[in-house]
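Record type: monomer structure entry
Structure origin: computed from sequence
Chain ID: A
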Amino acid sequence: MKEPLDDELWSAIGDPTRRRMLDLLLAGGEETATRLSEQLPVTRQAVAKHLGVLDRVGLVHVRPAGREMRYRIDDAQFARAVAQLAAVGATWDARLRRIKQLAEAIETEKQK
């Protein structure tokens, strides 16, 4: 991997409610905490706390819109998270290929 994993970022993404919120923001572009809470099985206050976590790790941007705050995905930070996930996936794919090779070698040796 080129850059180390960001533990705070992955801790934020690790929560299923926050992942669902990210999905909603990706689909809708920009939403308020109220609108997000209507689509989730948690209160508006819980949504606001989750959005605070996502904001702290840079996954969302917030802007005031009248009396409400509007949230949207930070494309660069989201792309960084996707790249890290792809790197982790590639690392595990390589490990699994090596395990398969070792298992096949053991099986071949047993058949001799």
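Annotation 1: The two ends are 39 Å apart (CA to CA).
Annotation 2: The mean pLDDT is 90.
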